[in-house]
Fold:
Amino acid sequence: EDLYIMFPMIAEISEFLMAKQTLDFELEQRKAAGEIIPEHVYVGTMMEIPSLYFYLKNNIQVFDFISIGTNDLKQFFFASDRGNRALLGRYDNLSPAFLSFLKEIQSCCKKADIPCSVCGEMAGNMTEAITLIGLGITSLSMNPRSLLKIKYALRRLNQHDFAEYLNRLLQTQTTSLRPAVEAYLRDHGIEGD
Structure:
């Protein structure tokens, strides 16, 4: 049987390697003690700290998978406290800068053939989930209540056309792509959240 382990809040590649080394040691100890251990252990990270991105180009192969934790990543990306009510709504998930950053992470993973997924509130919001799909991220972790609505919307979406549209939008100098994305979805018969 396979086991997937994800280490959170990794800021530097050395932190991940130390955690993985500790895990490998523990697995060897269990095996030496005659305990049954998983046949395959896949070790990845929850990408929540922007500094980790700068290690991806040269070190991405140390990860078996990457899951982008959009809630914390956005907070650290914009250097804002998501619990601060005064900042509520100040930074949109559909900011061109943040979306471009997510696209860069996805691109690094794709080039290296490392599975990349997204979890967090973005994945469960229809407009944002469709935007993530437009960026090329195809694995989303969401609340089951969101699943049918997003699945229905994706069936109606021409993903190739939307991806091209989104790529053009990423070049704009606006604080949020939300109005343009919502207009596109309305124009194509896809209801928003």
